Amino acid sequence: MEDLQSALKERNLTISTIAEKGRCLFATGDFYPGEVIISQEPYVCVPNNSGFDSRCDGCFLSSNLKKCSGCQVVWYCGSECQKSDWNLHRLECKILSRLDKDKRKSVTPSIRLMIKLYLRRKLQSEKVIPSTATDNYSLVEALVAHISDIDEKQLVLYAQMANLVKLILQWPEIKIKELAENFSKFACNAHTICDGELRPLGTGLYPVISIINHSCLPNSVLVFEGRSAVVRAVQHIAKGTEVMISYIETAGSTMTRQKALKEQYLFTCTCPRCIKVGQYDDIRESAILEGYRCKDEKCDGFLLRTSDDKGFECQQCGLLRDKEEIKKFATELKLLEDRALRPSPIANHQETISMYKMIERLQRKLFHPFSIALMQTREKVLKLLMELEDWRDALVYCKLTIPVYERVYLGFHPLLGLQYYSCGKLEWFLGETGEAIKWLSKAVDVLRITHGTNTPFMKDLLMNLEEARVEASYKRSSKDE
């Protein structure tokens, strides 16, 4: 712990323990929006490989892949990644090669992550791989497992997974209880590794980053540059302030967020947003994000349940919506949603888009205009339209999501920046250079804070903005002539 504190001191950080929260990361100097607070390589990580999508174990890229000839499980994009991973994979390869073809299929990313954890511990203890203050197994041991808070069904699952790892490793000294506890640590502490557009690529364990606590109103953001986890400030973090990130999707009511945190991370959040639960502002926001719209389509008021429980009253104009009318809409909507999710061998993109547009029209009659459910449906339509390269219709749906994004993703949030980027690209595809510049500029304003400016993703965005500006300048000069 002293070595870690010394290493963090150089970065203007320190660890303090608070009774109700455990370990916390505090700033010992000021950090400003866009500044890197801390970055860390994973102690162990695995790509989310499946039968349909594989990635390089070294860099997580998906091009020019070749399967390891020994284990037939792991993929590499080239000799450089293979060599950099060889110290660890040579042991893993021998272990996986012992398994028959059917048993290799049971080696899921979670099982591989655990196997690699113990192999890395072994290699560090033998000094084959060096240990440092921020990269050693004792940091993993210090992580919270919440094992006493887990229900019996989950404990049984962890025990089964632990037994499988023990059978694969064939190390008699490892105890099932210890393995099960480490699986619980993964559930509470591992991070989903994403690309610049926040698409999931794999899972990694970052023991120092895991010390950072959650807030639904965070002052920093976690993004990934390749496999490296990078935490950047998204607001001024003054000396003595705790560094906070968000563990979950923050769009949604306090009750929705609290439920997600309790189920996944086994704690109750007491951040500035969550302590307002039950207060008027929180009730209002919940009714807007997850409640019903006013019967008067020109009114943007929110509805609350009447005292006699027979309906919902608009808090702006006083109009009532009958409970049975809402129930009828909700039933019709559920039937449509179930139909859309039902697999169909002859379904095509156009049919699926038509189905989701029907759902969206019905949701507009039922839900508040800022409804999260309505936004999510529009995102599904947007994604399908993008796949069909129907840029004009896609732009319409992209713009419809922006007001909700701006409401639920406060401050410098990467999801808001990425949605601005989508609008900018669509405008550009349609030849609307001026509008493209407006949206791309908004995207840069957000993403330069959350992503920095040196990643390939950000370089592409900045290049797109510059090309759009050159194109706009050329069009103006052509008109002048």
TrEMBL record:
SMART domains: SET (SM00317). Residues 11-248 form the SET domain. InterPro entries: H3K4_H4K5_MeTrfase, SET_dom, SET_dom_sf, TPR-like_helical_dom_sf, Znf_MYND. One of its GO terms (cellular component) is nucleus. Residues 56-93 form the MYND-type domain. Keywords: Metal-binding, Zinc, Zinc-finger. One of its GO terms (molecular function) is zinc ion binding. It comes from the Eukaryota. This is Histone-lysine N-methyltransferase ASHR1.
